[in-house]
Amino acid sequence: xxxxxxxxxxxxxxxxxxxxxxxxxxxxxxxxxxxxxxxxxxxxxxxxxxxxxxxxxxxxxxxxxxxxxxxxxxxxxxxxxxxxxxxxxxxxxxxxxxxxxxxxxxxxxxxxxxxxxxxxxxxxxxxxxxxxxxxxxxxxxxxxxxxxxxxxxxxxxxxxxxxxxxxxxxxxxxxxxxxxxxxxxxxxxxxxxxxxxxxxxxxxxxxxxxxxxxxxxxxxxxxxxxxxxxxxxxxxxxxxxxxxxxxxxxxxxxxxxxxxxxxxxxxxxxxxxxxxxxxxxxxxxxxxxxxxxxxxxxxxxxxxxxxxxxxxxxxxxxxxxxxxxxxxxxxxxxxxxxxxxxxxxxxxxxxxxxxxxxxxxxxxxxxxxxxxxxxxxxxxxxxxxxxxxxxxxxxxxxxxxxxxxxxxxxxxxxxxxxxxxxxxxxxxxxxxxxxxxxxxxxxxxxxxxxxxxxxxxx
Amino acid sequence: xxxxxxxxxxxxxxxxxxxxxxxxxxxxxxxxxxxxxxxxxxxxxxxxxxxxxxxxxxxxxxxxxxxxxxxxxxxxxxxxxxxxxxxxxxxxxxxxxxxxxxxxxxxxxxxxxxxxxxxxxxxxxxxxxxxxxxxxxxxxxxxxxxxxxxxxxxxxxxxxxxxxxxxxxxxxxxxxxxxxxxxxxxxxxxxxxxxxxxxxxxxxxxxxxxxxxxxxxxxxxxxxxxxxxxxxxxxxxxxxxxxxxxxxxxxxxxxxxxxxxxxxxxxxxxxxxxxxxxxxxxxxxxxxxxxxxxxxxxxxxxxxxxxxxxxxxxxxxxxxxxxxxxxxxxxxxxxxxxxxxxxxxxxxxxxxxxxxxxxxxxxxxxxxxxxxxxxxxxxxxxxxxxxxxxxxxxxxxxxxxxxxxxxxxxxxxxxxxxxxxxxxxxxxxxxxxxxxxxxxxxxxxxxxxxxxxxxxxx
Lengths: 458, 458
Description:
The structure is a homodimer of 458-residue chains. Chain A is α+β, with helices and mostly antiparallel strands and 458 residues long. Chain A has two domains: 4-199 and 370-456, Zn peptidases (Aminopeptidase, 3-Layer(aba) Sandwich); 202-255 and 301-368, 2-Layer Sandwich (Alpha-Beta Plaits), CATH 3.30.70. Chain A is 35% helix and 22% strand. Chain A has 15 helices and 18 strands. In chain A, the strands form five sheets. Chain A has a six-stranded mixed β-sheet with strand order 1-2-6-3-7-17, sandwiched between helices. The two termini of chain A are 19 Å apart. The interface between A and B is large, with 79 and 79 residues.
């Protein structure tokens, strides 16, 4: 008896052309979630996903309504109670294709040129969703599935997944799984398979500083009133020390220390000083000298000024001593920080440091939690092995600086951690004209997902 | 033979009703300089002024064109070469009367209610101009003028006197005088005759701080880039020390020290801590502790943040790490500071303090010089004596924090210093509905101007 996974891999190799034809079919549906006039296309894309789940023999396949575009759900629990359950996340919506005249071929008429398959959504992320469908199909049609599989395919990722949190909260029991496979995070290079296991959270606030009761003439009153724009600048300047450390009382108390292994993995990442210099266009990097740039972005908290507004900001001059000044301030948070506590820490800083000659107000705007997946969990180990088998090398491990709603919501509302990966490359031009997918990487990706399914079976 | 000034004073007292009727006549011309549709009224007001100068027997009376509304000029040099020459400044334009429905009587139909004469321009400054015309008339019709008199009556004061500088430059020789009497500065109370002898100058700049080459995602790059809004705040925070002193190198080097007499005069001013607290609405004053609030406003230089702009300033949140940040920064200057030198001092500060991980640019926007009149000059002494005689008490001496173009231009282009006074009161509601003039003060003012003319004769 041959290794069952060899049959599945053979199946996938044998059907590459058809897989690509199916991808072309779903790319042809312009499911632009932000555009009202494309709502029928969004629904068609959801129906396409549902019909493909049905074709795979999934049960309970439904196009489920939300406050916005629907979620496609389906599952197969035939592997039994003792088998692992994998929740597969994806999104069927895409970004608008504008500006159209920059496309070398139609955004919704996917075509191959050389090693690339061009079209809106080929990389972000219809190509990734089709990869999961085809990996499951390959296993299903050969050995049968050794694990239970659930699908959560949303239609609002490109517009902020604003209805997904409520959906996950409501359907937490239905979504229960040992791990969520989220292939929307990409890899750092065609030969750099990558697992993303952490995301930062956010606490976004607005600080308002009030001085005189109305805008004053800077000639008639300049010299006797603490200028609120100056006072705001003084307060902001004190929020970091000279080494870029944040001075809010207790800010670092709950910051989880990076383990030796994590730091070793960070050191392996290709995103180094040079990368950040190139990507940002600054002449010198900034930040805590004790940490690598990638650690500062992925695993250290920040305090960022997102906006400043006071007084006269138009062309030319107006001699106003402004009545108030405003700053948008947000902190990126890491385990085990808490947005509410950070709000209190900034308040405590202001209470201690704000001069008595101004008034201030700190307003909570939005927040989101961080996410972290245990790198020693069976799901991460299964993906680690799968990528290693497919690429012949250990994957990179990274923590990302931004937030991804679904990962946090699955963690916080359904108790499901995510293993983030994917086969999109940094130069795929997602969200831009001529979005593309690297076909050799895609085929390798499908094979790695086949390995992942078998690895999850233990 | 009676004292000639007694006849002039008698004349003025005798003709009060007619003076008021003439003021009513000029108030009735709605010479709103900012409103195109009132241009014919503006011209009519200029002609009214010219006809009254002619009626006084002035020579060379002209309505002289400028780039905007005309200047009315006239002179009498009959007192001879050895007599002093007084240049009398005024403006015949007014502010718009809006909102009209708040006026208790028509803004251009001046009426007396109690001790007040209500109407647009009664205080600012048709009433003041008429006071000078009537004082000169009283002297002329009784003893004859013991001094030469020139008139410079503009029509654009309420819209920034933007064409007056060029006019003064071009006609400097014509405007030559021993002193300019400028009655547009008012007094601090009905029983507080006031001489204003100094004005602050201005150097207005824009500081731009540049960081990354474009706005960045604060999640993907927060922690490795010096946020330009934060860097700007740090630079601004360092521009003052803890005592409110400005830290720019050399900033105070040329600041003229206040004399003992000046400080005594400042101490007499009723604009004290309480006044400034009430007028600004702040709970605590701010600024250099070694100086009185009125000194800080009138005789000390400042550095003020007039505006701040960076990143996201709309409602809610946007997680941007902004590419740049901007501050409008202006310094109020005192003798003997120079706007160009202050620009260089701020540049030197930035060169020394700006971190290497950002770029900055400092742009000159506008500037204007300070003005100061020698308090021991014959013109000021003549006015001091005049006010003392009319009110029976020594006038207050103040330096104002703002700029008045004509005063600086006369000083810098024509070499004529100004003695600033006037009979407008702080509660005259100039620029507001129900503008009014306090008649007892006005009559006393006319008498003080009669004394001033005789005092100038020595």
